[in-house]
């Protein structure tokens, strides 16, 4: 019976297998920086971060710990040129999650499908990204860092495996790949051990920002000096990523009108839903095999307890990502009627921190569909019971792949049409990356 269950988990539907196998073949191997670097156990990452900032494991001590950080202001650089430049290899870190060799770790990571919970992987990536940046900015004169480094943006996470198995060791690697004045781009890779060899599972790009010891103002970080052609190309890609993010933000539908092509798409959807039996713009009919957007959403609420705090005594960003992903997964599952598989995560902007004790409201919406793909947008906000105000903290974008073709999502209002176009843009960016990978794979 157990063997049959494992076989069921490992058997991939042909459509999913073809799509994700092509991505695997096209994933570029990261530069080998492992020489001279000892791997860190995943359980030690958070303890290292606490030691770096002087955070206490006891919630009752957090006020005193944060007060002591004020004295670290004197260690801040007045300008970036005062800081020693670093190499990419200086920030390289390997972290081991030994699910295969230490079975007692599996309980935390296991889901009902006998595979690894992707939300837990998001938490580990977030912690690793911060540790990599602290390694890059290590202050030689003090064991404690004067910087408060936080996640500003999850730029992109691309997966090339449909299932992450719970019986194989996992290795995370990463390093700083680009540096601005006060921000750092981090490239991370996840691999899993199969038949004695580590094979790629995902690539992730995070953007971190450095602030002063009290987390109030920006702080300078060490410049990055790329070595060799490969690192030069990685650094240039970081510059291009920054430009792309600025262009994408500038063209946001919250700021700019849709393009002529997008306006045509919206109008065609409108015409396709008009009731031909009437001469009314208000009479709408749902096409066959379609679902109104207003009927394709789920909501959730989290009370933010101290247990989920980060090293700066606010709610851990990885926890927010896990909760948003799990709600998004549930939405995709209920919409498609079968188990969905995450293909990509992109453009998660951390707009404001979530304080301990907050009421966190999550709302997941199917905003675009195409064949067997489902694009999910999750909006998170905090509710202040004293002022009765709602403030947005994050917007998450997830691309899922279902085992079979899903109904078409149909917007009814103008606001829903903008959500539809925004989802279409994010889905298009994900598929563009997939096509580029396939083209690379097909090249002789």
Structure description:
This protein is an alpha+beta fold and 444 residues long. The protein has helices at 2-10, 14-26, 45-53, 62-68, 106-109, 118-136, 228-250, 260-272, 317-336, 414-442; strands spanning 40-41, 93-97, 148-159, 170-179, 183-194, 197-211, 290-292, 297-303, 341-350, 359-370, 373-384, 389-401, 408-410. The strands form two sheets. Strands 1-2-4-5-6-3-9-12-11-10-8 form an eleven-stranded mixed β-sheet. Strands 7-13 form a two-stranded parallel sheet. Helix 2 packs across helix 10 (414-442). The longest helix has 29 residues, at 414-442. The radius of gyration is 23 Å and the shape is globular. The model is unreliable at 1-19 and 440-444 (pLDDT under 50).
């Amino acid at each position: 019976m157990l063997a049959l269950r494992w076989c069921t988990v490992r058997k991939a539907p042909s459509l999913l297998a073809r799509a994700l196998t092509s991505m695997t073949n096209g994933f570029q191997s990261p530069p080998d920086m492992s020489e001279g670097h000892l791997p860190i156990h995943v359980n030690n990452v958070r303890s290292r971060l606490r030691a770096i900032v002087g955070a206490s494991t006891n919630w009752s001590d957090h006020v005193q710990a944060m007060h002591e950080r004020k004295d670290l202001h004197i260690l801040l650089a007045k300008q970036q040129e005062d800081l020693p430049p670093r190499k990419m290899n200086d920030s390289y870190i390997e972290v081991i999650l030994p699910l295969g060799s230490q079975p007692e770790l599996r309980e935390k990571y296991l889901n009902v499908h006998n595979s690894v919970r992707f939300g837990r992987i998001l938490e580990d990536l977030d912690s690793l990204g911060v540790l990599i940046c602290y390694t890059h900015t290590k202050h030689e004169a003090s064991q404690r860092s004067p910087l408060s480094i936080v996640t500003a943006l999850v730029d992109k996470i691309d997966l090339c495996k449909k299932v992450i198995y719970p019986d194989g060791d996992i290795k995370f690697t990463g390093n700083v790949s680009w540096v601005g004045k006060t921000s750092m781009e981090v490239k991370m890779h996840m691999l899993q051990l199969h038949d004695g060899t580590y094979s790629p599972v995902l690539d992730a790009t995070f953007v971190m920002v450095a602030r002063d010891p009290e987390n109030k103002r920006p702080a300078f970080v060490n410049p990055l000096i790329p070595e060799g052609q490969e690192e030069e190309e990685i650094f240039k890609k970081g510059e291009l990523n920054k430009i792309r993010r600025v262009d994408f933000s500038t063209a946001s539908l919250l700021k700019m009108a849709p393009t002529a092509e997008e306006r045509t798409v919206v109008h065609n959807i409108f015409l396709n839903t008009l009731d031909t039996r009437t001469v009314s713009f208000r009479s709408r009919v749902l096409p066959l095999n379609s679902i109104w957007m207003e009927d394709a959403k789920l909501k959730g609420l989290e009370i933010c307890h101290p247990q989920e705090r980060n090293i700066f005594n606010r709610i851990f960003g990885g926890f927010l990502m896990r909760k948003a992903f799990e709600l998004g997964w549930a939405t995709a599952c209920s919409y498609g009627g079968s188990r969905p598989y995450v293909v990509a995560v992109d453009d998660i902007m951390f707009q404001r921190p979530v304080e301990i004790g907050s009421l966190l409201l999550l709302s997941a919406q199917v905003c675009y569909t195409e064949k067997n793909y489902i694009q999910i947008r999750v909006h998170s906000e905090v509710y202040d019971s004293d002022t009765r105000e709602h403030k947005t903290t994050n917007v998450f974008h997830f691309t899922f792949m279902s085992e079979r073709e899903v109904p078409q999502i149909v917007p009814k209002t103008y606001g829903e049409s903008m959500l539809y176009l925004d989802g279409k843009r994010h889905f298009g960016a994900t598929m563009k990356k997939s096509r580029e990978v396939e083209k690379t794979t097909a090249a002789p």
